[in-house]
Design a protein that fits this description.
The protein has 99 residues and is mostly beta strands. The chain has one domain. It has one helix and eight strands. The model has no long low-confidence stretch (mean pLDDT 90).
């Protein structure tokens, strides 16, 4: 994808509650953040507010995608980084955005 933007991930809503989002940058790179379900993240807690709900997890599973949509391996961690804390996200975003 060569246009910047966001997309939302909501898989197995009724069963596994795997949720997340993707960021896409103008350079074609993107980052996927997922948590819950069978991802390598902490458990998801769901809070409902009327007809809406929020999902919360302390960590997420993160993957970087190149301009062809292929996974870009992390140094020493393989193609998907497990149990990523919020404090680690800034460096990942900066790396992907500046390819």
């Amino acid at each position: 994808m060569s246009e910047s933007g966001f997309s939302v991930i909501n898989r197995n809503y009724d069963e596994g509650k795997m949720v997340g989002f993707k960021l896409f940058f103008e350079n074609g790179y993107g980052i996927s953040f997922v948590f819950g379900g069978d991802s390598k993240s902490d458990e998801v807690k769901m809070k409902t507010f009327g007809n809406s709900c929020d999902y919360f997890a302390k960590t997420a599973e993160v993957a970087v995608l190149n301009e062809k949509g292929e996974l870009v391996p992390f140094k020493n961690d393989g193609a998907i980084k497990s149990y990523v804390k919020p404090e680690e996200i800034g460096q990942i975003i900066s790396w992907a955005q500046n390819r």
